[in-house]
Amino acid sequence: MTDWRRRRRVRAALGGVAALVTLAVAGAATLGLGGRGGDDPTPARTGPAATAPVTRQTLVKTVTLAGELGYGPAVPLASTVTGTVTWLPQVGATVRRGGVLLRADELPVVLLYGFLPMYRPLAEGTEGSDVRQFERNLAALGYHGFTVDEEFTAATTAAVKRWQKDLELPDTGRVERDRVVYAPKAVRIAQHLVRLGASASGDVLTYTGNTRMVTVSAGAGEAAWAAKGAKVTVTLPTGGSVTGEVRAVGAPASDASAGAGQRPVNPERPGTDAATVEVTIAIADQKALGALGATPVDVRYVAKERRDVLTVPVEALLALAEGGYGVEVTGPAGTRVVAVQAGMFADGRVEVSGEGLTDGVMVGVPQ
């Protein structure tokens, strides 16, 4: 064999060895078996990715319902005076004791405070609880010289004449039945039912109270919270909130009584079925409502409360193979899984109890 052929085979053999060495080094580097520039091996995980403390607290579960801020249901004013309507107060106006609700033939029909209706004329010699109610109003308006009692005396007649003169009514001293309308307190004009020039007899306008309140139409199945005096939180469209108190709870309205106006079932809110309950909520701090009128609001009530219980984030719960839940407790000695009894869930936390769990113990949570 010639020398040049021997040299060619040696070169070929050396080239193959070099290739094998290169592959071996590359493989070692890939497996982290040494070699410059190789990545450090990833350490094995020895605990949870993140931790959170077990916390002792009061868990509160709340429910939010849709409500409506307004002045309450409107009541029609049934006028018994004869003549033609010549004046009505503006819609939204507040009429207080001694104020005028309408004018018929330019003569006023006056608002007074009370619960008894004006069912008869009052004159000297009349006696009864309606006399006491009228005299109480007369005195509150600044007319004196008589005793507030159940007897319409000559002194009462003199005071009535002064009152009638101030109203530009004939000063007869006799209070006609159609000149006075009683309401428990000041009223707010809600709607005109007739135009000027219409007959003054019959329903001429509607009115409400002048204090804003919230009404909620709750499903009969979700109204157990609505006990008179129960506290709620009302969230306003401005972003603020005020405290409310349940003032009245209506009787359930069924399909038969509600008719076609009944709201449909809402699958997102259990209990909002055909039967509804009207809940009226009083707002003590009227100034906190600002200039808000009729507007939707949210009403939040406490559905359930657990005081002084241990809680963890809901995501800390582990589903155990044998059933139930556990948490991964961490500490200087390492980690261990502790079986727990889960209680109430609220605001992303859950009540738990288990062996060795105390306030401040750290448990694992996913990152």
3D structure, described in words:
The protein is α+β, with helices and mostly antiparallel strands and 367 residues long. It has four domains: 1-33; 50-59 and 305-365, conserved putative lor/sdh protein from methanococcus maripaludis s2 fold (Beta Barrel), CATH 2.40.420.20; 63-71 and 212-304, Elongation Factor Tu (Ef-tu), domain 3, CATH 2.40.30; 75-209, Muramoyl-pentapeptide Carboxypeptidase, domain 1, CATH 1.10.101. The protein has four helices and 20 strands. It has helices at residues 3-30, 129-140, 154-166, 255-258; strands at 50-53, 55-70, 75-79, 85-87, 94-95, 100-104, 107-113, 180-183, 187-192, 202-209, 213-219, 231-235, 241-249, 276-283, 295-313, 318-319, 325-331, 334-346, 349-353, 362-365. The strands form three sheets. The chain has a six-stranded antiparallel barrel with strand order 2-11-14-13-12-15. It is elongated, with a radius of gyration of 41 Å. It starts with a helix and ends with a strand.
Task: Based on the model shown, name its key terms.
single chain; 367 residues; alpha+beta; conserved putative lor/sdh protein from methanococcus maripaludis s2 fold; Elongation Factor Tu (Ef-tu), domain 3; 4 domains; six-stranded antiparallel beta barrel; 4 helices; 20 strands; disordered N terminus
